[in-house]
Amino acid sequence: MILLDECLSPHVAMVQRDHVRLEWRQLYADSVLERARPVLWTCLCRATAYELYEGGGQAFIRRTVQLDRTPEVHDTFMYPIGEARAVWTGLLSGSAR
Fold first, then answer.
1. CA angle 29-30-31, nearest 5°?
2. Which residue of 9, 14, 56, 86 is 20 to 30 Å from 39, comparing CA positions?
3. In degrees, to the nearest 5, what angle opens at C-alpha 95 toward C-alphas 92 and 96?
């Protein structure tokens, strides 16, 4: 059992009633991921984890819902890095999901 005090990565805050809904899509092709690397991520102790990927001046957020057998993984659209980091901050604060 993982205690919250033992977690090193941030947790996503509870979603706010007036949050921005992110559009989730299928995973990007491997050719897109050749240059993209995860630079920020949330703690894996929760059922849903998020990662911010950056590369080539672009960025996207990956959402992984950890199910019993196979995780469900989706990505947001590509953003300029500054915009993606603003969305990431919104995700962590609960104002985006």
1. 90
2. 14
3. 80
Residue at 1 is within a domain: no
Asked if residue 2 belongs to a domain, the reply is no
pLDDT at 93 over 70: yes
Q: Residue with structure tokens 């819902």?
A: 65
Domain span at residue 27? 22-93
- Residue 38 bridge partners (DSSP): 53
Strand residues in 4-90 grouped as ranges (E): 37-41, 48-55, 58-65, 72-75, 79-80
| Distance, CA of 79 to chain centre | 13
pLDDT for 7 equals 82
Residue 6 pLDDT class (50, 70, 90 cuts): confident
What is the model's pLDDT at position 34?
Answer: 77
